[in-house]
Amino acid sequence: MLLETAAAPPARRGLSVRTRGLVHVYRGEGRDVAALAGVDLSVRAGEMVALLGPSGAGKSTLLSLLAGLFRPTAGSVLVGDLDLTKAAQPELDRLHASGVSLMLQGAARNLLPFLTAEENIAFAQHAARRAAGGDAHLPGAPELLGTVGLADVGREPLSSFTPGQLQLVTLAVVLATAPGLLLADEPTSRLDHGARELVLAALARVNQQLGTTVVLVTHDADVARWVPRTVTIRDGRIGGEGRAGEEYAVVTADGFLPLPGHALELLAPGTLVRFELEDGVYHLRVEADGEQTGKQDGVDES
Ligand SMILES: Nc1ncnc2c1ncn2[C@@H]1O[C@H](COP(=O)(O)OP(=O)(O)OP(=O)(O)O)[C@@H](O)[C@H]1O
């Protein structure tokens, strides 16, 4: 099979994402689970962001809320101008038909195995055309398959595809409705190194060529090579951000500053700290038994 790229489908404006004070509690019998405990996340239109973090941190819950699959316990989610927490069902239906695409974990959950790649794309476009009253200008299957690097295999049976190629077909299918926001849950899980690189490269190409906003969840630490911004979710909150390989702590909307993982090990709960500004540089000073123990860290004021 050939792996090659063709002319990209026409760009469509990406959708911005903004959450404020996002809280989600799963209500269970006798036990409630707080999956998200106040997430303030802003993603610009056309940006590509990876959500990282340990298992159970709340990444998939956050992705589902961005997709509008269910409503949060508290807080707001804006996709473009639409507040998903207040939107009526027809508005959410329209958003799902053409504005936001969700790539579920595992190609099998996104594809109909008895159809070819082209037929899977046509199937995905059918609902979008109906929602738009037949007026939707959607990209053709050859264009889409070309964009993900799978030109010329649109009519071959999916049974002859490798796991990496199936994931690329999945990407073409979720792009079939020309979404402004693409949400991908673990798009590289269970793929070998070479296939992971191809899928991440295809996602980055989609983001750059089509302008689609991309938010993906991953355990893949290598993802930072392909994604300019990573956001680490820890215990249902934003625990930090990575930009171009640099790690940052992020001040929350209500003024809290979660410590980065390595500092957590050094600073026990209850530790008293002082911020001091010296020559344009912030210093974090730790107090022990009423005494100053010295400079722990320095941060540029800017
Ligand atoms: N449907 C559900 N009902 C009850 N609890 C849930 C449900 N889905 C997730 N949880 C719980 O919510 C918390 C966050 O789960 P979530 O799947 O969002 O985390 P995650 O970071 O995506 O984890 P993983 O990387 O393992 O997929 C966990 O404690 C999980 O057990």
Describe the model.
Helix 2 runs antiparallel to helix 3 (117-131), helix 3 (117-131) packs parallel to helix 5 (163-174) and helix 5 packs parallel to helix 6. By secondary structure, the protein is of the alpha/beta class. The strands form three sheets. Strands 6-7-8-3-9-10-11 form a seven-stranded mixed β-sheet, with helices on both faces. It has a four-stranded antiparallel β-sheet with strand order 2-1-4-5, covered by helices on one side. A three-stranded antiparallel β-sheet has the order 12-13-14, with no helix packed on it. It has two domains: 17-238, Rossmann fold (3-Layer(aba) Sandwich); 267-302, no CATH class. The relative contact order is 0.16. It is built from seven helices and 14 strands. The longest helix is centred in the last third of the chain and has 18 residues, at 193-210. The protein is globular. Helix 6 (193-210) links the parallel strand 7 (181-185) and strand 8 (213-217). The structure holds adenosine-5'-triphosphate (ATP). Adenosine-5'-triphosphate binds at residues 26, 28, 33, 35, 53, 55-61. Residues 17-260 form the ABC transporter domain. This is ATP-binding cassette domain-containing protein. Keywords: ATP-binding, Nucleotide-binding. InterPro entries: AAA+_ATPase, ABC_transporter-like_ATP-bd, ABC_transpr_LolD-like, P-loop_NTPase. One of its GO terms (molecular function) is ATP binding.
